[in-house]
Each structure stands twice: as C-alpha cells, then as structure tokens.
Amino acid sequence: MKSLLATPLSADRLWEFSFLLIGFYLFFFPCWTFPQSTAVALGGGLVLLLFRSVPPETIQKLGKPWLLFLVYLLISTCWSASPGMTLQSTGLVFMGTILFVMGRINTPETQGRIEAVCLGLAFLASLMAVYQLIYGFGNLTSLIPRLAGENRDIVMAAIHNKRATGPFATHGALAAFLILFIPLGFILRNNSRGIKKKVLGIVAVTLVLGLLSTQSVGAFLCLTLAVLAVFLKRQSRAALAVVITLGMVGIGILIFARGIQSWLLAALGTRVILWKASLGLFMNHPLLGTGLGTFDEIYQQAGLPLETGARFTHNLFLQLLVETGLAGFLIFITALTSVVRRIKIPSRWEGWGVGTGVMAFLLFSLLDLPFQMPELVWFFAVVAARLELKTQSKLQDATRQPSAEGVNETPSKDFFDRNSKVINQTTQYALLSILLLSGFWPPFRAWNFALVAGVLWILLGLFQQKFDKVPLWIGTGALFLALRAFFSPSALGTVWFLEMIGILLAFYLILPCFEKPERFLRVFFCLGLVWALKVWWVPFHYSEPGMGNWVHFQFSDVKDWMIFPNPKQVGIFLVPLVLILSVKPRGPANILAGLGALLTMARLKASSPVAGLGAGIFYRIWVKSRLWAVVFLLAAGGVLASYRMMDHSATSGDRINIWKDSCKVWLMNPVMGVGPGAFAGLYHQVKTPRASGVSRYLMDAQYS
Question: Model-level pTM?
C-alpha cells in the first residue's frame, strides 16, 4: 500500500488531467453565470505552469508583434476607464497565450486525447441543447407566475425564441463551441472504420443538430465559409457546390425558424446599432482607447440605448478599436497577420479539422463574442495549438546559414547564459525588496498580495521551474482539496485559499534556483526585525512622558494591532531568528538578530510562538536527557501559566471559545469538511457572543 501511494505521477499526465479537470468545471459552471469561475480560469492557467515550463523558443514562435501587444495591454491599465477590469481582461489574454504555448508542447497522443475529450463535451452540450429545445422551454412556463420585472421578461423571451444554450450562458457561446469541433468530428468519422465510424457519425450529426438548436445564423454562416475556404485550398471543387447548397439551406431554415422580421430587428439590426455606436465611441478616444474590457462602462456613460445588451460590440475588431485605440488595434492586426502567414499546411487530417474549426471560430468573433468568454478561450487555445507555425526567422530568411558551430543561438538565450549570475542576484534583491515593502502593510490588502503573487509567478516563469513528478498520495490530496474548493459555499474564501496555495508552491519552486538559498533565507527572516521597528517606535509615540510611564507602557498591548492583524504572525516569523542563537559559530550578527527577535516576541506578547519555540527546544533536550526535558517542561509550563494568570485583558479567554465554536462548524460536515475558505461565514453563524468584541481580531473571521 505504501509503495502504491508513493507511485510517481508524471508532469505531463498531471498537466493533461489538470487542464481537463478545470475545463470540465468551466464547461458546467460558465463564467457569465458563475462569476467565481473567472478566478478558476485565471488561476487554472497558473496551476498548469506548475507542471510544464515554457521554453523561450516556444514563446518566440508567437512573434514579436504578439508579445508587443501583450505589453501594450498591460501598460493600457494606466489610462483605462476601469483599471481593474482592464487588468482582468488582460489576464484572460495572457491565460489564452500561456495555454496556447503550453499546448504546443503536447505530444500527438496527448493532443489527440484532449481533442477526443473536447469532442465528447461538444456532444454532451449538443444533447443538452436538443433536450432543452424539446422539453426545457416548456418546463420554464411554470416559473412565470413566480417571477416579476426583468427576470420575468427574460424567461418569457427565452420561451418565445426557443434558442438552446446547453450548459453555457448564451446560445452564441454554445454555437461557438460547436463550430470549433464539428469539422473535427466529420474528419475523424471519415478516417475511421467499423463501429467507431458509426459512433463518430452519430456524434457529428448530433453536433450539427445542436448547432441548429441555437438558431445562430452567424455561426452557421461562419462554419460554411470556413469549410469553403478549406476546400478551395485543397482544390476540392466537386465538394464546393454541395457545401454552398447545404450552407444556404441551413441558413434559410434558421432565418425562417426565427422569422425574417425578427431576425432583421433582433439580430442584424441590433448589431448594426452597436457597430455604429462603437465607431462613435472610438472617435472619443481614437489613439489609445479606453482600456481592454471597458466597452460596457463607456457605452453606459455615453447614454446609449441599453436594450441592445451592449456589454460587447459583437465584433472583435471594433471591440479592440474602441478599447485599445488605433495604436493597440494596429499592433493586434500586425500580430494576427504574422501568425496567419506562418501557419503551416497541416500534415495530418486532424490538423485540417482543427484548422477549419479555428477559422470558423475566428470568423464568428466578428459577429458575436466567443473570445470574451473564458470557458471558450480555455478550450480554443489548446485545441488551436495543434496548428504548426513557422518561426519568424524562417519566414524572413529561409536561406539563413547556420553559424560556424552549426547552431543558431537565439539572442535572448545567449544573453541569459552570459549574464546568469547577475540575473540571479538581481532577482534575489528584487524579491527581497518586494517582500520588505509589502511587509509594512497587513497581508490582507489586495494590492499587497497581488504584488507579491505577481513577482513570484513571474520569477517561476523566468526560471522555468516545474514539478517533474508528484507522488500519488500528494496528487490525490491535491485533487480532493481542489474538488472541495470548487464546491465550497464561499467563493471569496476559495479564491483566497487557492491564491495562498499558489504563491507557496511558486516560492517552493523558486527558492532552489537562487545561487545561495541559505543566504537568501537568512536575509528573508531578518525582514521580520525591520517590520518590527514599528513596534518599538510605538512606545515612544503613545506612552506618557517619564521613564516610569514608558516602562509601564511596555506591559500594555500593542496599540491598534500594529503591522499585522494579530501580533502572533510577526512572532511566528521571528522564531527562526531566535534559533540562530543555537547555531555555531555564534557571531555578533547572529547574537544580535536572535536577541532582537526574542525581545520583539516578548514585546508583542506573542505567547503562542514562544510556546512553539519551547516545544522545539524541549524535543532537542529530550533526545539528550529525558530528565532535563521534564524539568524544562515543568519550568516552561509554570512560567506560561503564571503569565496567563496575570493577563487580565478582555481577550484572554477568547481562544477557548473560538476553538469550541470551531468544533460546531466542523460538525456541519465532519467527513468532507465545509470547504476551503468557508470557515469565516459559518463561524459567525455559530460563534459564542462575548463582550470582548471579536471583530477586533481579523483572524477570527478567517481562521479557527
């Protein structure tokens, strides 16, 4: 059993499993319906980086224009109408880029398995859509008497239009997902034999029925144009007439089903209004735009009609023109043109199927908004990674000769090799500076945490570190925590829990990359003394004049909980410095650091870290002499008990009450737990009322 649990799981299999697991979650919990899924998508891209590093040459294949576009999006937060929304939208673009470059490293077998699972999800979405079309809208009729206002109007419109959405938030999202995989389904069917061919034929036909259930004329048109373009490229002229006929018939059926007048007003007319409004908004900020993801806000600020559902322009080019301005739009067009020109002719039939689906998806982005939905971007980026790209250098100079050594080293790789020591030291100083700066504020502030997390993940990408193998028992435990977090009743608590786990894993992978990790840690722990300077400044600021008053003030609580929400956090951080006193040789620096940490812990009245430190000392004594260990335990226990007896603060007995209330929370779900990050809300439902005022402790709201 022990050997089974220690079985190592390869990084590639973990990457594949993690991608599909997160994809399943986004499939059933789309971001527009479940806002917390946006955090899952953004964090999921970072999770995959733990199992697969991205070589520089893979990133370089994207081309310099695309990298310049990414930099421009980041900088645009400086003048954005909504910096937070721009940063989130930019994060989604980075997520798609990371998934694409990581997907390009997949082996053909891995890519094939991922595409097969995605095709299965498309089949499931089609079945859900057909079921919804036949039974779902009839069941909605019973909800109308219980609804009012806008909700009632939305349900009545859905019943009237009967446009299936499947598991997604909109029918356009379902249509975009299906046209991405319909060509692949037919390609796989044509290249299979026996029962597999029949099964894939049923799957492909079901996908078409699912597309028809959305009544999306634009999606059907884009799919038809993409298939025509592929047949023209392959010079299959005999099939052109069939495709044109089927396309026209399908489009005609959809328009007839929706009603010509309804389609002209609700679909085409609305888009024309949005496109005209977009051009007007572009003229207000023509050069730099208003920031990615801000169209909805500036649209409302302009007082334009809201009945058009104007969160987006339903045209990717116009959306970028408004939000990134002419400068960003031209960079994007240059990057897109560069990528399209470098796409190689597929060498396998699966490549033709994926290429056709990708082309249809891109065309549909000019009529709808598939790239504004993280769940669609998640699948699109990895599926599109099958397409092969030529490097820019080969495109510009196909006759370039190798160097005298026979290898063409990239300038960036050569630069990093020559300056590796300087870069290593610079990153250490930069990280220590960021930690020093962030430590002067409580760690629960958003900017503080984002700064530390951003730096750690950037360094993780720079050093290209990952977990090569993970024991089965650790992988199983991580899977349980992830699944439990996905279904936690506290979305905010879940995000906080996963963010903390993420930066801890990133720090764990980064630390061995430093030239002297022990030296880095020594300086890192000394930062606690720098942060504690504020604690020693407090007595001079708050105490009354006179030596007696100053001494008396040392026995009072730290005013306003300086530095951290609870002084125990600083005390725990200082424990390693106290242990330096036991390390030989004991130099002046070690002695000063240890004594400074010990005095600071005493000033903070951090009895919990002192107790933990005492447990460690007790163990070291116990190994050498059990008699002296018992003597130490009795003496330390007496000192701690005396201190607690002299503590007459209003919060002296709160710890016991918190533990009792924590047991009540545990009993709500003793087997599976209440969910990571869910303790805060549940604790305040069952906590024991007390006059001391628990609100003073921020930790009481998050931890037991």
Answer: 0.81
